Amino acid sequence: MLLALASFITSLTIAFFAIPSIIKIAEIKHLFDVPDERKLHNSNVPTLGGLAIFAGMIFSLTFWSSQKEIVELQYIISSIIVLFFIGMKDDLFNLVHYKKLAGQLLAAFILVHWAGIRVTSFFGIFGIYGLDIYSSYAFSVFTMVVITNAMNLVDGIDCLAGSVGIFATAAFGAWFFAAEQMQYVVLSASLMGSLAAFLYYNRTPAKIFMGDTGSLMVGIVLSILAIKFIEMNRIIPLNGPHKIRRIPVVTIAILIIPLFDTLRVFTIRILQGKSPFNPDRNHLHHLLTDIGLGHIKTTVILISFNTLMVGVAFAMQRVRSEIILCVILLNCLAASYFLAYLRNKKKGYGMVKLMPRPAGISKAKSE
């Protein structure tokens, strides 16, 4: 407990005191996210919050852990650094999508090949248990890229990406703590501390955004925690109140907001004949803000729904995984359909534009 607390406080302190300096430098160098017709903020806001998240997390992780505790530590840090620079370049110069994807694939391959962080079993979902080496490599890289992109896409309003990151990290970290896997408790706590500090400055009106620098790093760390959560449950399954039967389904439930949102918008874009990477206003947070909710209320609603889906996954532990997945997916589809109905109804009454915003309220960037 003391090690987890020390990791959390260290990263929180570093990120908290680093952000004001980053904001000042961004203002001097004019490094802003400029509002346009697609984005939800109405003032120039610095986008380099990922710098502080990176500094706090990496310092705390390396200070409170060692390679003896995390044998994959050097590769985890290497993959984070790859995405740090990819995200930084995208925040400053707007990288094309295929270059961002190439960076994500490189980071994922480092983790899968050299660190050995990969999914080796489906736990019987769709009748699949163990995976051969090639399937394991391919599925693990795919999983990491999907989660990384999902976190990048969910970064659309104040506090949402940070809150989703904290929620998922806390869920995984709690199990690692119960399983006495302190090396991953340190990783979880280090990320949580940085995100907690970031949220203080990202609350409406936001003083800074995490940018792609932050969202890509958070995504790759969450993919590491998710895969280790799945694999460690296979190797050291807990008994008693900590025992989890449907491991992959619980993992999906923990990450359901970014995963479902990405699946939803990609499907809509493809059906409309557009590139899946073509930005639009069909994200779940857009549906909520378009019916008049503020960023904090929208974030609370989405995190509450995420919590509900995790509860569903745990409550149905004795049911087949496929059935649980269907129930979760149907709940997500029903909720998103209802929100789309409310937005269309509002537009049908002539209220096409967003609800009026109080003067001076900034909005986070929309992907």
UniProtKB/TrEMBL annotation:
This is MraY family glycosyltransferase. CDD domains: GT_WecA_like (cd06853). It is a multi-pass membrane protein. It comes from Peredibacter starrii. Keywords: Cell membrane, Magnesium, Membrane, Metal-binding, Transferase, Transmembrane, Transmembrane helix. Its cofactor is Mg(2+). It is an enzyme of class 2 (transferase). GO terms for biological process: cell wall macromolecule biosynthetic process; cell wall organization; lipopolysaccharide biosynthetic process. Its main location: membrane. The chain crosses the membrane at residues 44-64, 71-88, 108-129, 136-154, 160-177, 184-202, 208-227, 247-271, 291-316, 323-342. GO terms for molecular function: metal ion binding; phosphotransferase activity, for other substituted phosphate groups. One of its GO terms (cellular component) is plasma membrane. InterPro entries: Glycosyl_transferase_4. It holds the Pfam family Glycos_transf_4. Its EC number is 2.7.8.-.
